[in-house]
Design goal:
Blueprint (H helix, E strand, L loop, with lengths): L2 H15 L4 H12 L2 H23 L2 H7 L1 H28 L16 H20 L2 H10 L9 H31 L5 H23 L4
Helix pairs in contact: 1-8, 2-3, 2-6, 2-8, 2-9, 3-6, 3-8, 4-5, 4-7, 5-9
């Protein structure tokens, strides 16, 4: 696999990454309402999900899932259920939320070490599951990877491409996090804080509905 091929793949991944999706929404929402540190945990979870997807694709499981209506439907509706959970949780949080600036930030850490670790792990898991429970990513790997991997080195090429996707997407999400901080001052009002939670919850539900309509 030459450098030109890797650049082309990276370009495709970047174009897909800048289109808002569940992963980007989760990272942005966490950066706005919690802290950059927790958003970084989301990114690590999402990146880990890409590597798992790459490994699964290399082993041929993506092909099995794409050709099995039962397996695809099962994975799809697990993903729908998870996005619905995120949406409802966000809307419920909006009912009792305070101004975003009053929430914990990187500069005002008051939690104990064990609670901080638990929160980091929780947001890592959210990023991981948001990525893993999206069958569209499996279909992406199934349609894109065959054009870039060689038969002689499917596993190594797939993991390399998965690593490139993780780096490209993570880099873009870091930009998203930096931009999100610019808006925090504008959201230092209870009404605005509630609105962002309601909006985010509605978008998550929208992604769930869109995912539910996905077909093979």
């Amino acid at each position: 696999m030459n450098i030109d091929t890797l650049i082309v793949f990276a370009g495709i991944v970047f174009l897909i990454a800048i289109v808002p999706g569940p992963n980007a929404l989760l990272v942005l929402f966490t950066a706005l309402t919690r802290s950059r540190t927790l958003a970084f945990s989301n990114i690590l979870g999402v990146s880990s999900g890409f590597m798992v997807h790459a490994f699964i694709s290399a082993q041929g499981l993506s092909l099995i899932l794409s050709q099995s209506s039962w397996a695809f439907l099962m994975l799809k509706y697990v993903g729908v259920a998870y996005l619905t959970y995120l949406g409802i949780s966000s809307i419920r949080a909006g009912l009792t939320t305070q101004a975003i600036a009053m929430l914990p930030t990187d500069n005002r850490e008051t939690e104990q070490t064990d609670k901080r670790y638990s929160s980091l792990l929780s947001h890592f898991t959210k990023g991981f599951l948001t990525n893993m429970l999206n069958p569209k990513i499996i279909l992406f790997y199934l349609s894109i990877f065959p054009q870039f991997v060689s038969v002689e080195s499917v596993v190594s090429d797939s993991l390399l491409l998965g690593g490139i996707q993780s780096v490209v997407v993570s880099s873009w999400f870091l930009v998203v996090i930096m931009l999100a901080q610019k808006f925090k001052a504008l959201l230092n009002h209870v009404k605005a804080a509630k609105a962002i939670r309601y909006l985010t919850g509605g978008i998550f539900l929208g992604f769930g509905i869109k995912l539910a309509s996905t077909k093979l």
